[in-house]
Specification:
With 94 residues, this protein is an all-alpha fold. The protein has helices at 11-18, 21-43, 48-55, 59-66, 75-84. It has one domain: 434 Repressor (Amino-terminal Domain), CATH 1.10.260. Helices cover 61% and strands 0% of the residues. Helix 3 packs across helix 4 (59-66). The radius of gyration is 18 Å and the shape is elongated. The termini are far apart.
Amino acid sequence: MKKKGSIGSTFDDFLKEEGTYEDAQAVAIKRVLAWRIQQDMKKKHILKVDMARRMHTSRSQLDRLLDAGNGSVTIATLARAGRVLGREVRLELV
């Protein structure tokens, strides 16, 4: 009996062929970060207004950070959010 293997290319290959792989990767990373920050805020019972105050930023800036579709977030903003939540932000080029 033969083992079933994958047929055709992967979804990553498809995105690369279409020229949208990097954009899709960036969106996915932003969604995960936004989700993780929201989960940590919920777990620690931190309201948005309190989170913004602790980050020394505005509520609208925090809303941009938590908006999975908004890619205009700086590393400094992510680092401040991480510090407030007791986390460290690590970036890596692989």
